[in-house]
């Protein structure tokens, strides 16, 4: 009898455990999911604040979905490396020194600036190796927040078309672009003519939070790594609508009705049998 091991089973067990330990902070509204179900957002907030608890049995975890998420994370790392190497000093963010033994606490450059800084040539300890850290934004009034995949200084970009401006007089809000990376299955990628609506909302929130005027999407085909690129301009009218949504949701989450109960926003879907609801860990609270 030959000796054998089951690699997939062990990996899936690890991914399931990792997913249950997800420590993402839901005490604020994430830009990346703003166009999703707001009732789910409300439940996530209530759970983060200890107002409700979720039984682990209600959480449906797919190891395959975890692998998909991880591929997305690696896409960010890969393109961040591309941008860093494509044009020196063009990629802005925070930069963590990788000489962990050289500092009593992590040494991170760019913390003193809203948009971070370009990659340092060398740490004060002499190390030249850094890890890119995505810039995070937060709006305490609206509870919006999120981390952008990258910030590009276009005055450092090769052959950048600055229009009427020069590198010396371009306004700050136009000098820096928000960059967001997306991966997509080949069938959806083939028909993609413009950014998906929910991604446009995400970018408009990022532009609002960052104070910048332009953003760029890079969509990569998961099948053959072909790429599509789209420019997005800040749209104050769209942002005003989304701001009003945030104000309403925040009010609902921070107030109770006359009998002391929290008032939930409408469900995002009409049937508890829809795929999104079946996969939602709050379905037991929502559809009772």
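^ Assign residues to that structure.
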């Amino acid at each position: 009898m030959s000796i054998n091991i089951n690699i997939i089973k062990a990996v899936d067990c690890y991914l399931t455990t990792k997913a249950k330990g997800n420590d993402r902070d839901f005490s604020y509204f994430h830009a990346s999911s703003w166009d999703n179900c707001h009732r789910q957002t409300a439940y996530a907030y209530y759970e983060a604040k200890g107002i409700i608890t979720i039984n682990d049995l209600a959480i449906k975890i797919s190891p395959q979905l975890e692998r998909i998420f991880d591929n997305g994370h690696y896409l960010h790392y890969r393109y961040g490396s591309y941008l860093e190497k494509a044009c020196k000093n063009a990629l802005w963010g925070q930069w963590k020194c990788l000489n962990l033994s050289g500092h009593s606490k992590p040494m991170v450059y760019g913390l003193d600036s809203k948009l971070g800084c370009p990659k340092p040539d060398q740490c004060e300890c002499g190390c030249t190796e850094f890890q890119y850290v995505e810039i995070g934004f937060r709006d305490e009034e609206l509870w919006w927040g999120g981390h952008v995949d990258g910030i590009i200084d276009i005055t450092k970009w090769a052959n950048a078309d600055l229009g009427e401006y020069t590198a010396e007089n371009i306004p700050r809000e136009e000098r820096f672009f928000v960059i967001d990376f997306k991966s997509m299955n080949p069938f959806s990628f083939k028909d993609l003519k413009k950014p998906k609506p929910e991604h446009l909302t995400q970018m408009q929130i990022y532009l609002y939070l960052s104070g910048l005027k332009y953003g760029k999407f890079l969509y990569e085909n998961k099948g053959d790594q072909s790429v599509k690129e789209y420019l997005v301009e800040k749209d104050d009218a769209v942002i005003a609508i989304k701001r009003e949504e945030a104000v309403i949701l925040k009010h609902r989450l921070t107030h109770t009705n006359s009998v002391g109960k929290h008032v939930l926003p409408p469900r995002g879907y009409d049937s508890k049998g829809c795929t999104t609801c079946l996969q939602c860990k709050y379905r037991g609270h929502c559809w009772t």
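The two ends are 53 Å apart (CA to CA).
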